[in-house]
Amino acid sequence: MWGHYRENSxxxxxxxxxxxxxxxxxxxxxxxxxxNCMGKExxxxxxxxxxxxxxxxxxxxxxxxxxxxxxNEPLESISLDLGFHGNTLAEGLVxxxxxxxxxxxxxxxxxxxxxxxxxxxxxLCALPMIIGASMxxxxxxxxxxxxxxxxxxxxxxxxxxxxxxxxxxxxxxxVRGTYGALIQxxxxxxxxxxxxxxxxxxxxxGWWRVCFWVSTIPAAILALAMVFCAESPHWLYKxxxxxxxxxxxxxxxxxxxxxxxxxxxxxxxxxxxxxxxKFSELLHGHHSKVVFIGSTLFALQQLxxxxxxxxxxxxxxxxxxVPSDIANVSIGIANLTGSIxxxxxxxKLGRKVLLFWSFFGMAISMIFQVTGASSFLPNTGALYLxxxxxxxxxxxxxxxxxxxxxLLLTEIFPSRIRAKAMAFCMSVNWVVNFxxxxxxxxLLETLGPQLLYSMFATxxxxxxxxxxxxxxxxxxxxxxEIEIAxxxxx
Length: 490
What we know:
mainly alpha
């Protein structure tokens, strides 16, 4: 869902920006450069070389999905065992305090990934997940649970940003979209896994502790397996470790392709790479416009209402006579199915097509929801529209608006600011996510479902228009080709 601003063909220039009348032409010029002007490998490298490294990286996304939903089913048992049953504030904090830790971890992710490398950043992501989950599993009071969830949250914030960076930088261009979509699939599997592991919680006393202990296993696997994974060649090259970068390219792509990749990297001016990227530069420097676009699109992703739909899904299904556990599984299956299809289509149709039609489908789905909430329809028809619209919304979200943004931004950000710009944009995502979750039920009560879902549909339509005018297709292009195309042409 991440676009490119209309001045993208000169966004890294140090010369004054062009007037608005030339903006549309700039988008087309950049697209032409991406399509026509860059050299290509004579053959695609084997995708099998990089796949194991990508699969290890997606463990962080699996943990992300697992920890976000691990307390949903066991919350009642946790509150009874730890003595805060009936305290809605305490229950809400157990669920949401990890968001505070996630924001903190996300803000630091760019500096950590650039400072210690992508592999060690993954290990630093796994560490708080192991420590925090262990604290939550072993605690006998509310304070220990909250501290554990807060610590886990720092890993949740660090993981997705680093995963998007790493997978983008180690994947061959022709499967980078497919590999990037695996992040969304892993997140879905994590959510479904937490649901299934939590099923015995009502029958077995203290089972909720097992739910937390189980999560330490994939976290430990992530930390250990990263020792054997390749470091990002792009990060090594930025550090001036050219020989190591070429060796990692050979490991990931093969010898002929490694030579080509290094030659492409050498075409990109590395003069500024050794400079420290300051936070203020992301807001006011040469790259501020593309960072603004990325942040806006991440905000639109959340303002579309995706998390609100997740929050409200149990209520809608319950009104249709469907138990909450079946409702959760149905939503999870719709999410996973859409994610699998996006994996297949990402490198065939391209990022922009999936993103455009994803938001368009979400807008139509919200219109179904609005119609279902109307008093003019019979109850049966209203329920079909509400439930069907909800499943369609989640499915179409998973096709593009879910997996594309993180992938596309890591592709269009220049290597110098890639990690820190992603950290900033994903932090915006967390902040907007928090406020949507905080205000949704209050707005639903105050405005009613028709007006609220109409607002969500409007945001989806705004995103469709934004994608149409601002996104540049990056399908099949190497990161070096994309960066060169977006640099000023002589």
